[in-house]
User: Fold this.
Amino acid sequence: MRFFKIITICFWGYLIISCKRDNSKKNEIAKEIKSKSVTDTLITDIDLKKIGKEIAGREKKDMIDKYYYAINREVERPEMADSFMSNIDSLFKIYHYKVFVINSIKINSYVVKILFEDAQYISILLILNKENYPNNCLVVYENLKSEINYNCYSKITNNIITINKVGNSKKTIEKYIIEQNNFLEYFENSQIDIPKCGQEEIIYTKDGQDSTYEYQYILEGKIKNHLKHGVWDEKKYILQYNKSVWLHGEYINGLRNGEWIYDEGDPFSKTEVYDMGKLIKIY
Assistant:
């Protein structure tokens, strides 16, 4: 009988200790997630102590490609466009940075430095874990110190990211929402706030006999539930062409779907094919 009591006491003691350990682990995990969670914050600088290991090799090349994708999301010509006219991949330094948790989604971030001879450039690139989706990456912070100073900072409110871009010649605001594991363009109103902007440029017909004037940047399409939806025509700056180019295609709840045609006035314009945001092929 005494032996049975000893066994019972030991058993209950073991259960109590195990429960305390489990609760302690849960509390530690909760604290860790809470410390990384972002619901309402500003990204106005880089915490140098959080910069991790440098990325090299093939992974670095993939990161550079994602950075270019993210920069190319702008409608207007980026402040950094002149710097990208030649191959500057060798000037890139990319490092692991923080893991953000936005709306319960873990997002890896990276610090991107470009080592120009006469300028200092540093930025933060967010990447969602979704390959072959061009909208899985977003630049949320930039700082360029040179003859042309430029700064980009962001405010995160729940799952909406508001990006403020301030340069010598302009100031713009862009909004994105994290949905379907993508960074999608977000519109507060059901109509496009600024459907046309930039300077007017002269456009000639293919035979050169007639001409007209047209804004550099044009957005034509419908908005549904704060996202692009249906057939859209967009005239925006494309880095690889170094000029404004017409794009035509369909959005479904903010995601490109089907064929998207890049018409830059050449019979050999590019076509991208998407399946609900996933890039399938280019021809």
